[in-house]
Write a structure and sequence with these properties.
The complex is a heterodimer of chains A (about 220) and B (about 170). With about 220 residues, chain A is mostly helical. Chain A contains 9 helices and no strands. The termini of chain A are far apart. In chain B, strand 6 and strand 7 form a beta hairpin. Chain B has a 3-stranded antiparallel beta sheet, with no helix packed on it. A 3-stranded antiparallel beta sheet of chain B has the order 2-3-4, with no helix packed on it. Chain B has 2 domains: about 30 residues; about 120 residues, Rieske Iron-sulfur Protein (3-layer Sandwich). The chains are: A mainly alpha (about 220), B alpha+beta (about 170). Chain A: One of its GO terms (molecular function) is metal ion binding.
Chain lengths: ~220, ~170
Amino acid sequence: MLQKMYDWIDERIDITPIWRDIADHEVPEHVNPAHHFSAFVYCFGGLTFFVVVIQILSGMFLTMYYVPDIENAWKSVYYLQTQVAHGQIVRGMHHWGASVVIVMLLLHTLRVFFQGAYKKPRELNWMVGVLLFFVMLGLGFTGYLLPWDNKAYFATEVGLNIAGQVPLIGDWLITLLGGHPEIIGAQTLTRFFAIHVFFLPGALFALLAVHFILIRRQGISGPL
Amino acid sequence: MSDKKKQVTRRQFLNYTLTGVGGFMAAGLLMSPLRMAIDPVLQPSGDGDYANVGLAVDDITKDPQPVEWEIEQVDAWYKSDVTQKAFVFKDDKDEIVALSPKCTHLGCMVSWEGSESHPDQFYCPCHDGRFTKDGTNIEGTPPTEPLHEYEHKVEDGMLFLGKAYPRGEA
């Protein structure tokens, strides 16, 4: 059945070459944990991506209940946590995943760093990776405010004050991020929500695409 | 490979295994989010409590009169007072009838004698739906069933209304 559906599509638009190009390629021996167990370090990038997928999926579902408004944000999260079946689990996935993704990202970065995999000709991908790291930190920072509890509020207070330490443009940066020079409130929450749910994920997808395309073009760096 | 039985090739075996494991992981990943997403569908529909609508039974006339009352509505994390509306009258058998003003076509609000050209009828301004006094939809207008009727009870001479239910009759 599935084969027939695949054949039907393939006959018309010839997707097999595209599929081959994306998924069907050899894994070199030195990155295959079945050959050398220590090669598991090559999994960290893929694991990071896997956790990112979890974050995207759980995040999409969370927006079914969450509302980015200072009156209702906390209440909607509380409702999700206490009244909705499996709501606690889905928010838990997003909450813990947010930390796990940073851990995986760091492990992946360490592997690339200590293996010198960032060296020519792969400097560009290292830079894209660093940008991805910043995007991830931004996602973590903006997502932290969304439950609108005390911890979230004061973490953002601190975060915005850190941004305010930037020479010359500090004050301007606070207003741009928080929506108001002094108040962390209605505009801050909607801004952080928009950044967390639309702007940064958009940047994330674009950078991930570049990251992966570069890997396919350049291949995995050779054995040490 | 001498026997005629269909052999599972190494490639097939790996394909099945990977698909199985991948499917298992995807299912595990999506189970909770999907359960959470369909939660509203699985909620039991609560029976409405009866509310005093502030109308004495003695004041109910043969003509439909609009009554409004407020109920506390709990919408997930948002509680609010919403206004309910009904048209109340006594029918020919002196029975109390409380009709929901919600048009059975697409849910606009009907009003009693809302159109000058149709006296003694409920009229819906959205698509010219009409109902007779007892709530029966008039043939040739959009509504397909009669106006819903509130369940009612009388306590201390006051009218209490509950939930509006569809009526079986045509």
